[in-house]
Amino acid sequence: MPKPKRDEPLLYMEEYRVKQDPQDYGLADEVFTMEVFKKKMQISIVKNDEDGLEFDLIGVYPAIANAFRRLMLSEVPSMAIEKVYIYNNTSIIQDEVLAHRMGLLPLRADPRLFAYRTEESPEAGTEQDTLEFELKVKCSRRRDAGKDQSNFDDIYKNHKVYSGHLKWLPKGKQAQIYSESTVGCIHEDILIAQLRPGHELDLRLVAVKGLGRDHAKFSPVATATYRLLPQIKLNREVSGKDAYLLQSCFSPGVIGINENECAYVKDARYDTCSRNVYRYPQLNDAVTLARVRDHYIFTVESVGALKPEVIFLEAVKVLKKKCRAFINEIDAK
Amino acid sequence: MGALAELAGDEKNGEGSRTFVFSNEGHTLGNALKTIIARYPEVDFCGYTIPHPTEQKLHFRIQARRDRAVDILKRGLEDLEALCDHTMVTFEKEMKDFNATKEENT
Fold first, then answer.
1. Which among A4, A9, A11, A72 is positioned nearest to A42, based on CA atoms?
2. What is the pTM of this model?
3. Cα separations in angstroms, A241 against A244, A246, A248, A286
4. Per CATH, is A10-75+224-298 categorized as 3.40.50.10420?
5. pLDDT tens for residues A246-291?
6. Is A154's pLDDT higher than 60?
7. What's the alpha-carbon Rg for chain B, to the nearest Å?
8. DSSP per-residue letters across A269-307
9. Core vs surface per residue A138-155: b (16+ CB within 10 A) or e
């Protein structure tokens, strides 16, 4: 669907400064109404694959874009291991370091299906707010290994403890609702510890729902960032050797060269906005670098429990709930 | 409960000037709300501060001549809520369109 063309407010990136467009009076004098906001705001999804979600949020204030980013990072809940009961740990990794490593393991469990632990909930937790796992690994020497073998994989059994060794212990009726693959660790190949014959790990792990502002392990995103849309304009024709020099000043794929050996802007979107061009006197005046002030390119990479689009929607929902709670409190007074 | 309070000291300044104290909130809500409320024509001043980084408190100041500060705050929150609703609806629609075109192409 083609979107109506709009006036793009630009920020010019000159050699030593960032300059506003002389016609752009900034955000300060604008009056906020929902009608204007609805007219201006646009969203377009650009990419959604295993590398994450990329979408454009256009025509919003920086504070709004930043609020969504901050919410995704630290206010959307997820499940993570919070308590580690160590019954036996004879490996060389210290108890507290091991416990910390366990906490960072990403879990597949959908946080929306669980409740937060409260003050009233029992120490052991309930099936609504707790997931339990155990990790029992013992390293031993392989009997069949020959004397001349030196590879650890051949002479030791279980000498590497992976997240795949984690075993889920269903609480109450959890086994009827979930399965190991829907609540367990997302990756099976995360190395937790290395053991030698005689070393043993015996742990019980308790996972709860939490928020990223409490600890980064509860953050549902690997990255959630935004940047402004770059815009590159060529002021004059650049050809021959200079065209290739110009191409090398930008990220790959940004500048193209046509059959007449003339440079043209192919795709400014994925430029890193370095000001490399200004180093060359012969190219100094050839380009105008700018960024669109209210065009935010969001990149959201999920850890794996929730899809990135769900994380964004959850983040917006969190902000909405905050507002609602305060409105209700004002009304109650 | 009681996540919203008022700072003392504005009793003589009429209903238009108030500093509200939000508990357990930070820049996320503070800055978003500030950008909206500061753009109401009837508001003379709007700003926020987090007095101490380890205290989970947000001081939110509104000054206006005609309207009550509480009403302006409420309006700001309602606008922010409506903004969230609109964002969600737009995003869901765009996501649906995106998935539909993706299906067509495969």
1. A4
2. 0.92
3. 5, 9, 11, 14
4. no
5. 999 999 999 999 999 999 999 999 999 999 999 999 998 999 999 9
6. yes
7. 18
8. TT-----GGGG-TTTTTTEEEEEEEEEEEEEEEE-SSS-
9. ebeeeeeeeeeeeeeeeb
Question: Under an 8 Å CB criterion, which residues of A touch B?
Answer: 1, 27, 30-32, 34, 37-38, 41-45, 48, 55, 61-64, 66-68, 70-71, 74-75, 309, 312-313, 316-317, 319-320, 322-327, 329-331, 333
Q: Are A44 and A56 in contact (CB under 8 A)?
A: yes
Q: Where do the structural domains in chain A lie, given as residue ranges?
A: 10-75+224-298, 79-218
pLDDT digits (tens, 9 = 90+) for A49-101: 988 999 999 999 999 999 999 999 999 999 999 999 999 999 999 999 999 99
**Cβ contacts of A313 on chain B, cutoff 8 Å:** 88, 91-92
Q: ipTM surpassing 0.85, yes or no?
A: yes
Domain A79-218 falls in which CATH fold? RNA Polymerase Alpha Subunit; Chain A, domain 2 (2.170.120)
